[in-house]
Amino acid sequence: MKAHDTTGWRNPWFRKSILWLIVLTVGAFLAGFVLLPSVHSDFSAKGVWASICRAAGVPADWSFGTAPRQAATATDVVLDRSMGKEGSRQAVGRGATLALNCTMCHGAQGMSTSDAPNLSGQYPEVIIKQLMDYRGGKRGSPIMVALSRNLSDEDIADLAAYYAQLPKARTAPTTYDEELPALVRVGAPLRNIAPCVSCHGGIDQKFGAPWLEGMPKGYLALQLKAFRSGERGNDSEAQMRNVARTMTDAEIEDVSAFYARKAGPRTE
């Protein structure tokens, strides 16, 4: 008499267990990678791998150098510590005269009444670099490219010296506490995003990184989105593009609103 096979595929309980395991796996996959992510407002289906990485909380792309190439707009300005030195009285005077062309957008005392950046008290090397990028066509803006086209290196240095010595638009630096937005305070290590305060003041200031406290919110949001899309690419070594590439609209809104919260009174 042939023995009854109680193991293997012929066992009905074994077949049912396999069937239920498949059903549960498919159900968990659909719930975790389709249903739950879809309830988030910023969700967009970008394939199975992207959904898995999103659910796991890790980047879908670990090759951080795969951003759209921006060879035509990458900066060629080399930052030098001499750019950050205080200008002479003569340089400040010449810069004040040149700055008369800048008042319509940046204000009579470097404080904007629109969404143009505040320049009062800005680090001189920041202004020098951006003007050189505009002049060389490395940063786009019809107005700024036209205004900077005929500026000499000395003109640019004088303008930077003038704005740097104006009454500081830099309000009291950010204090490190739990009320700061996460990206400002701790960044996002899994997305290779350093804390904003580690470069832009508050805890530390990286040479060449602009002071952001009190900047117009619209300007900050516009620049972050331009870095994210690759429209703006004059950041050395793609530092800001790497940061902004994975930022959501909500994160850009939070960071921009945070830095704009200390905007000083606008006087003309």
TrEMBL record:
Record domain Cytochrome c: where: 90-167, 182-263
Keywords for the protein's UniProt record, in alphabetical order: Electron transport, Heme, Iron, Metal-binding, Transport
Pfam family, one: Cytochrom_C
Keyword Transport: yes
Name assigned to this protein: C-type cytochrome
UniProt superkingdom: Bacteria
Organism from which the protein derives: Variovorax ginsengisoli
Keyword hit for Iron: yes
